[in-house]
Amino acid sequence: MIEVSRRRALAALGATAFLGNTQARPKGYLVENTLHMFAEDQTRFPPHKDATYKPQADSLDKYIAFVKEAQLDHTVLVQPEPYQDDESYIEYCFTREPTPGYFKATCLYDPIDPATPARIEALAKRNPNRIVGMRMHEMNPQGTPFTTSGAIKNRDMKDPAMKKVFKKLEDLGMIMQVQLIPYHARGLGELSSGFRNVPVLIDHFGLVTRGTPAEYDDMVNLSKRPQFYMKISQLPPNPKPMVRRVYDAFGPDRLIWGSYGSTMEAFSKTLAQIDDVFDFASETERAKIRGGNAMKFFKFRA
Prior knowledge:
Elements: H1 6-14, E1 31-35, H2 60-70, E2 74-78, H3 88-94, E3 103-107, H4 116-126, E4 131-138, H5 160-172, E5 175-180, H6 185-192, E6 200-202, H7 213-221, E7 228-232, H8 240-250, E8 255-257, H9 264-277, H10 283-297
Parallel strand pairs: 1-2, 2-3, 3-4, 4-5, 5-6, 6-7, 7-8
Helix pairs in contact: 4-5
């Protein structure tokens, strides 16, 4: 999705920083893409009336200091549910980034609201080259109803408005990021089948612990469609066998590591975890998973 310049690639490969006496920063790109940011000033940036939980405030300045120390290449901010469809704090973060073009973001709008396609386009126009796509949640268990209003989650993927949203994402060259339990994997596959040019990022390893083995088979089977990518985050206990299964299904070019934390301790542990769960993969493949794939997927300039 991007062309990686020789100069930038060589610079990234040559930059190795050490984290105290623990884990060394590996060569290549590191891209955070699971981060929710919550404003310290909750009067200026209050939670939405339909917030699904009360957030704890973050310090943007502290996060930026961490980014510099860890030498992360980019962060994709993920619009959190407490702000619902109010993207104002993400837009504020764009004005406070550590280096020009550092931040991008996924937005959150109601996928069955007829106004959503126009709202996505308007947000993208206000923030050129910043909005990479929209996120969606399908978390209601089998046998429970879909919602049509209130908090933006658990909308019916068979609603005709969903296709209009996918069409707008296709027109804008954006992705769909979906947090879903395995029960909904088949429905997601059916919805996206008519929009094969829309890359779909499955959040949090497909929440493997939230479904039956047969339902997670459906999740893994989405790998047969080249538009599907898997985010490696929220791994289950004893994850290595399942990581290998997902690796074999999606391949090293469609796996994207999700988070590097926000402290150097968490960062060091994360780097060690990547080496551990992908100990069977080559260093070239691990470099793709750590951030090379994310650079391309989210269309960062390299």
